[in-house]
Design goal:
Strands 3-2-1-4-5 form a five-stranded parallel beta sheet, covered by helices on one side. It is globular and about 45 Å long. Helix 1 crosses helix 2. By secondary structure, it is an alpha/beta fold. Helices cover about 50% and strands about 15% of the residues. The chain is built from eight helices and five strands.
């Protein structure tokens, strides 16, 4: 979200996400540590992922104007605000504590609802009502689960819904190793700045 908000405020933004800017402005948090220690490549990666997900969802909605979209591991994502056609049903799925945080910035509506659950649990499937085209999006999520968990998830979704499209990003083992190294480096810098 911070990356999208930062990009939005540039002179020639690659993506405009006013809701992300609005949320960032409401948070009582000093983002200067992130700003100082994050490289442009990371921001570019976040923005590119967002652009590709938006494009995929819009293409799906063109085919299924009353589609159901499930945003797996939504965090404080703002995809709905950028792609809504006034007809889709959009679910935000994440852990209960994340859904509680989202309530400070979003209220559920008839077509935009939150579900408090891990995507690996199955009881939430029953909250999805007869979709007219079903798409699951997962940006920056699936590589935190192991291959067997993801395989079981795909199979159980197919068994329950019959048909479902998925759009997600992935990392190679080398990419994941580099990403973990970056996260550990950022955590070390953040910990050091908190001690000062």
């Amino acid at each position: 979200m911070w990356g999208r908000a930062t990009e939005t405020q540039k002179n020639n933004p690659r993506i405009v996400d006013n809701k992300a800017v609005e949320i960032i402005d409401q948070l009582d948090y000093d983002f200067s540590t992130i700003t100082e220690n994050l490289n442009e490549l990371s921001i570019t990666g976040w923005v590119a992922r967002c652009i590709h997900i938006d494009r995929a969802v819009k293409q799906f909605i063109e085919k299924y104007p009353e589609a159901t979209i499930i945003n797996i591991g939504c965090g404080l994502d703002t995809t709905f605000d950028r792609i809504d056609n006034g007809k889709i049903m959009f679910y935000e799925l994440d852990f209960p504590e994340v859904v509680e945080l989202r309530k400070f910035f979003y209220q559920d509506t008839e077509r935009h609802r939150s579900i408090a659950s891990s995507f690996l649990e199955k009881q939430w499937y029953n909250e999805i009502k007869k979709p007219k085209g079903l798409l699951c999006i997962a940006g920056g999520v699936l590589y935190y689960s192991n291959g067997e968990q993801i395989k079981e998830f795909f199979i159980s979704m197919a068994d329950h819904f019959g048909q479902c499209d998925f759009y997600f990003d992935s990392l190679s083992p080398m990419g994941m190793k580099i990403a973990k190294k970056q996260v550990l480096k950022q955590e070390a810098i953040l910990s050091k700045s908190l001690l000062i």
